[in-house]
Structures
1.
Amino acid sequence: MTLFDQIVVKIIQQQEDIIGPIAVEQAEHVKELKIDWSHHQVEVSGNAPAALDKLVEQYKILFGQIAVETCKEAASNLLSQLPAEEQPKSLR
Amino acid sequence: MSLTKNKLQLFVTLVFIGFVGWWISFQHVLSKQGLSVQWFEGVYGLLALTGSIIGFITARKWGGYKTILGRALLFFSFGLLAQEAGQLILNYYIYVSKIQIPYPSLGDIAYFGSTLSYLTGAYFLTKAVGVRFSLKAVKYRVIALLVPVVLIAASYWIFLHNHQYDWHKPVTVFLDTAYPVGDAGYISLAIVAFLLSRKMLGGIMKLGLLILIAALILQYIADFTFLYQSNRGTYMAGNYDDLFYLISYFVTTSAIIKFYTTYKHLKMRAAPVAEESDQS
């Protein structure tokens, strides 16, 4: 899995801890994400930072800015490994 | 979703209005403690029972005990169920056994269980609304510390200052202290949850979470009034304290229904972000 794939997995896991299976269903609305959650596998296609922004937006629809903070927290360790220009805007 | 479209909320609202009408109808003869009051006391807790059943179903949909929101909803449902159990037990003592309510009694297992359930539910509520993000700021840490300290101190002053403990009855001593402290505990968590999340909490979950916080505040008003009147021997069945409990059950049930309808809405929803992006 790429770093982006891993970030997506971390974010979905964190949201799943809060709201359960709905977290996965919300992520499935982002068409750039190919999700096999039974194996916790995710593949990001196309513009990965933009796809991550869309994923964060999905959770923001539910909880507002708190969801964004939760996503930042989930991704923080992996995000630091990305160059600044590749980091999704919503997670900066 | 409007009230008329949400049949569950409409049903609960009509039941609530019916109970309020019933409560009003016997206020002018309350001192007689007649049959109407007795039936009302035995029946209005059904609203709490209804709320708890909807709550268990809703909690399961949100992941049950495996998730933070599921746990919060589960404990609120247990709280409602325990309230109904406590009411039925006390009514049994008063109207069936026709004895002075013993203290402590089986009813206290239910009522204290309710307090513990609301306390635990409130704790998971603070987690669900992301209180920890605000705790990074010193100002909010001070608030999170001050609110419980002030409320527990106030509860102590009102209920336990100069209180004569019967040290030969340790369970009684425990309950005398644990009721007001437990109540102060869950109301503190509710206030902290509100104050620390109000700037960041948003989205379609916001309303349900805010109604749950409001429900805790109303439950506290009812519990506080009951404790206050019991301490001073002024409690009367069917008086406004029962109205407070009725309102609290209604608001808690409404919050739970909000989570139920939000879940249904999310399940039916199309993919807005992806589609919006495609269109733009």
Note: Chain A has a mean pLDDT of 95.
2.
Amino acid sequence: MSAHTGGYYFAPPSKWPLVGSTALFFMAIGGVLAMNSIQPGGWIFLAVGFAILVYMLFGWFGQVIDESERGLYDKQVDVSFRWSMSWFIFSEVMFFAAFFGALFYARVYSVPWLGDMDNRVLWDAYNAAWPTAGPYFDTNPAYQFSTMSAWGIPALNTLLLLSSGATITWAHWGLLQGKRNQLIIGLFLTILLGVIFLGFQVYEYIHAYSDLNLKLTSGIFGSTFFMLTGFHGFHVTLGVTMLIVILARCMKGHFTAERHFGFEAVAWYWHFVDVVWLGLFVVVYWLV
Amino acid sequence: MISKSNIGSANTFGLARLVRLVNPVMRLGFLAIAGFATLAHASYDVNIPPPATGIASEIYDLHLYILIICVIIFVLVFGAMFYSVFKFRKSQGAKADVNFHESTLIEIIWTVIPFIILIVMAIPATKTVLAMKDTSNPDLTIKVVGYQWGWQYEYQQDGLSFYSSLATPWSQVGQPGVPASEPKGQNYLLEVDNPMVVPVGKKVRLLITSNDVLHGWYVPTLGVNQYGIPGFIKDSWFKVEKAGTYKGQCSQICGKLHGYMPITVVAKDPADYAAWVKEAKGKFAIKSDASVAADTPPKVAAIVDEPGKKWTLGELKQAGESLYAANCAACHQADGKGNPAMKAKALDGSPVVIGAKSSQIAILLKGRPGTLMAGFDRLSDVELAAVSTYARNSWGNKTGDMVLPADIKAARK
Amino acid sequence: MTATTHTADHADEHHDHKPYGLSRWLFTTNHKDIGTMYLLFGLLMAIVGGFLSLGIRAELFMPGLQILQPETFNSFMTLHGLIMVFGAVMPVFVGFANWLIPMQIGAADMAFPRMNNWSFWMLPPAAILLAASFFVEGGAIQSGWTLYPPLFTQSGIAGDMTILAVHILGASSIMGSINIVTTVLNLRAPGMTLMKMPLFVWTWLITAYLLIAVMPVLAGAVTMLLTDRHFGTSFFNAAGGGDPTMFMHIFWFFGHPEVYIIILPAFGIVSQIIPAFSRKPLFGYASMVYATASIAILSFIVWGHHMFTVGMPAAGQLFFMYATMLIAVPTGVKVFNWIATMWRGSLTFETPMLWALGFLFMFTMGGFTGLVLAITPVDITLHNSYYVVAHFHYTMVAGASFAIFGGVYYWWPKWTGKMYNESAGKLHFWWTTIGFNLTFFPQHFLGLAGMPRRIPDYALQFAEWNMISSIGAFFLAAGQIFFMITLYMSYKSGQPAKDKQWEGADSLEWTHLPSPAPYHTFEVQPVLK
């Protein structure tokens, strides 16, 4: 089917999937070796795997962008992209749900159970109040920690992400109305807000580790706090990366007012990351 | 083979009576299935063993009740299928009635009827669930702690605490490629050194937990199957109606010797039980020494290393004690004397333990191939250092030296 | 569906060119090639998993330890489960989906052919990681396929290999499912409305939704295991305020839908076969669709029935018991509909139909033991006993695998253009049915008598049924070697198949396409009335 003659575009044979699998294989081996402190093989495998992954991403997405720009994708392909992006975001929601579920379970079930009458047999002095590092770690002064106040940097970060949701919508209006400058400035502002957000997160982590003694190892509170915010931060990083790609494409003159699903997909993703943050802000920072 | 439950069963709208009526029929049916059961002494049990508690008896009846309903439905439904298979064959000239493929009425009927049957099933089940969960007002409370691989029973009122582990000699088990050197006894894998002893007719509440991984305290004839979850107390209860010995096994995979972790409960009449308690006080009394008192929490994560920390012998030994109890005592025993039944060597006075540190560390890390001594390299450096230091300086062992986390780290390379 | 001939497709044959050599398979974007690779990969993994199960059954032939060290036994048992679920059954069903969904909805290919290939090519790295974990220090994991901490946390380096393999498998499943959902929703031929789709497509559409919803949850669960192992978190450690039970909740939130992920496509295959050999449309098509959807929705609220012995509060036990019992309603509807399809039909009993009937009979037995296990008090006495092992093998082997065998025989003529040997197929069916029941029926009795699962050695009272079960297992395995030989012979020298091999088949692959199906099909979509 290499000779494409209109209609739905079905891709010809491609090496990229295999390249991607090779990358994952290397990264998995590297991860296993590195986590088990088998040096220096682990980091080498990880680096090689990551390099292959980046090569694959450039190659594969480059090809998709090229096909799109050559007009090979008709309306139906566009619909396929919309369905698939929606379901991809849904799968990400479920990924976060696992971690939110862990936090919910710990707060509502396991921690109160650990402090109940029956468990006095095991943990006679445990005060099961959130935040906690758990019945054993709480007894060790080395694990005493303070929590992050919601109304400092986290509130500021909420404002940043909400504003970035507005700027990307503003950029979208620009695209729809053919105002290229508005599009590019809007995207640039969105990226800037995302990067500032990430900078604040890094600052906040340093503050947590050095001033609050709040660490990944601080029992269930530290575990859920860093897992949720860290996983979210990773998604913001991905989102910013995708926004940068889209900005570069806009500056090259890609997309039209009618056809710009690449832009929209990233905007959806960005809004998704935004909404997750609101959930985080409420249950991780605010309702401590 | 099938024995009728005849003990204090809760009679849920004649359920037990129904079950008992049908029981002889079931028995015939099962006998037909296992028609060759009379051969030799072979055991072709086909049902839940005779229950020994009221709850187990309710479970027994409930199972039979559900099974009977299922069998009836099964016969009806597959009667229809086999009727079709024989009646509507093309080779018999059957013509397909292609218009018979939709009927809302039929769909509604076969949605509603099963729903009603389910409600009929759920009512007695609900009653039993609530009864099983009612652990209030016990006469006796026993704390059950699972270990890799054995059990510890702690009688809180009577001040007793002891370990219970496999009593079958390993010479009956054999090794891959090496046949067992002794014939298997009648209670092969189901016998323990120190059974749990309970009084007949008393409500016994179990506080079940674990010291390392998940275990399952499972005695089917008592109607109890409860995970021991490290760090959590979960409770269950039973009331044995008749003196006797009741056997079970660990039900949740817990590593290498999961299959060698039996449970035995001996129910005695109150007078015999009192006599047993008296005797047991001599062997199993909880020492008043605070370090081994019942309220010492098992250390799930006992000790953490900090870079540059200067360890003292006392610190390591203290941390090592609970680690020893968690990881070693099941075989080598709390007093370090070992357990000949498991071929677990005595550590007290062992040349390996009080000899060169390197050989002791090597065995801790790698285990002894061909024996049940597994490698414990899963423990952290500091945990291994602690347990090693503990063994070197406990009981009759007094080396006065300590193994440091750095020694373990070096040995791992 | 119109029964037009396939002249249009013959006219297309001049450009039925396909690439040759290894690169055809490595770089392919053709749904049939990818489907074939999935099927062969699944077969290979089934052989590996089957080998492990024979190791298990050989050790359990007699009491005492004869062949495997206890820790090796645990590894065999664990990897048997992981490989059969993630390596064999799921890929085989995805193989069916790849082959059939485009043909059944009149599409030329899957919506995202390149991603389709990636979904497949993620499997070999994951399989290599799992297989290699046997050979690293400490051996493969021993925790059972459920990966429960803290036992899993004790694993050696194999633990990390397993976690990362699960991550990769999860990514593969999510991409594959998104592809299927998109294909079904967007690439149907004109006139192929949702309620006209063959039931196999429907079941896969619903399965794909389930996969998208639960595979990420599994990924989250194993990620927490990983951080607990290496980065000092306390998700599943009570000392830090976590709870091992929390892992079970998250795992089974994935795990229960997962078992329906395995069985729903089987329902789909059976729903194709029974009407075809009854020469009559499927009875209650719409109610079958609704029943499938109900089963899928219910699967999200029943996970607790895997955990009745963890000591959850009475309210939790009752909720999960009632919800689980409810599943019997839509499942019953499906069984009744299949039987009603046969009622007043014109039945013949070629090999695929035998497998479908075997499925119906024995899967329903598995369903009934499932109902028995749904009753909380009964489950408590049977939990982690061989009764459970028997139950889920009746659903996984007599359920999923019987449907797979039926499907393979049913579509073999369409895939290869060759007929299998009918007598050999029937012999394989009876051989497997007898071997299967010999292996697994006695396990009900073992469980009722109180034999725990996952033990390498057992008390003497369990010896007789175990010996029968082990004999059955080897007999069953021998039958599968016979199956492979039969199919190989058919592939090499079978009689040519007819385009519409089955008189009663009415889906597009039979009515509109020749046998074997050309490399490219439906480049011009058929228009249905």
Note: Residues 1-15 of chain C have pLDDT under 50 and may be disordered.
